[in-house]
Specification:
This protein has 9 helices and 8 strands. Helix content is 38%, strand content 28%. An 8-stranded mixed sheet has the order 2-1-3-8-4-7-5-6, sandwiched between helices. The protein has helices spanning 15-30, 47-61, 74-83, 96-99, 144-149, 162-170, 190-196, 225-238, 240-256; strands at 38-44, 66-72, 88-93, 103-120, 137-140, 156-159, 176-182, 201-218. The N and C termini lie far apart (98 Å). The protein is an alpha/beta fold and 258 residues long.
Length: 258
């Protein structure tokens, strides 16, 4: 009589469990490479940048990406982004990629600004840049549109902050300061009262120029451009972008100028 050892029982995975595991694996494989990624976006210290960032933060969240900011003086901000030390620029004017080819424009405008000429005590007639060419002009270093527009003018002073420029204006060392403001969001007198103080500074209208602002990504993040373009276009068309812009502007002013 042959004696056999104890039989071995094989445990197989139930079909349902196998199917579920396969589904989870497929879903994980289907996630884009940037899922759970954190982007660090550079930008100049300015209300417009802060408001634009809130739009981008909401847009990237729809892709499962966290967006954070690193604020610098304007010239340094774009240098950091162009070198790839940050992942891109929050917002800049159209055509930045011509000067910084490592930056890729996301082709959906996310904000817009007016470029205003501010003078001391005496209003002036503003009709584009040519109307200012014989004046002592102050611009912020790193603001490309202003640097390009004034590069052939004789009396141009650059500084790293608007506070420095307006201090020169108050001391009569400049005739005019060129500064940006968010287009269409400033009630009459707000800028003079809250930002400049009641010192006789004049907001000269119309703006020297008005233009749209675009988000830029460093070329190392080029795979994100199609996806974030679709998201921003949808937000713009649905009105979500405008809603965020207005809410972010209101919250910024309450925080900065209670």
């Amino acid at each position: 009589m042959q004696v056999t050892g104890p039989s071995r029982t094989r445990f197989s995975r139930p079909p349902v469990a196998s199917a579920l595991a396969a589904l989870i694996l497929l879903l994980l494989l289907a996630l884009p490479a940037w899922a759970e990624k954190t982007l660090y976006l550079g930008g100049a210290v300015h209300e417009v940048t802060a408001v634009s960032f809130e739009i981008l933060k909401a847009a990237y969240a729809k892709l499962g990406i966290k967006a954070k900011t690193r604020f610098y003086p304007s010239k340094r901000a774009v240098s950091e982004s162009a070198a790839g030390f940050t992942d891109g620029e929050v917002n800049r004017v159209n055509g930045l990629e011509k000067t910084f080819p490592t930056l890729i424009q996301v082709p959906v405008p996310i904000n817009s600004i007016d470029s205003i000429a501010y003078s001391l005590e005496t209003p002036m007639r503003v009709d584009g840049w040519d109307s200012l060419k014989n004046l002592r002009i102050g611009i912020m270093r790193g603001i490309r549109y202003a640097e390009i527009a004034t590069r052939d003018m004789k009396h141009v002073t650059t500084r790293d902050s608007y506070d420095q420029l307006f201090d020169l204006l108050r001391r009569h060392r400049l005739d005019v300061v060129i500064s940006s403001r968010p287009e269409g969001y400033w009630p009459e007198g707000y800028w003079q009262e809250k930002r400049l103080g009641d010192v006789g500074i004049i907001t000269n209208e119309p703006p020297v120029v008005s233009f749209a602002l675009y988000h830029y990504l460093h070329e190392k993040n080029r795979e994100l451009v199609p996806a974030i373009t679709r998201v921003l276009k949808s937000m713009r068309e649905s009105g979500e972008m405008e809603h965020i812009r207005q809410e972010a502007t209101r919250e910024y002013r309450q925080k900065e100028h209670p």
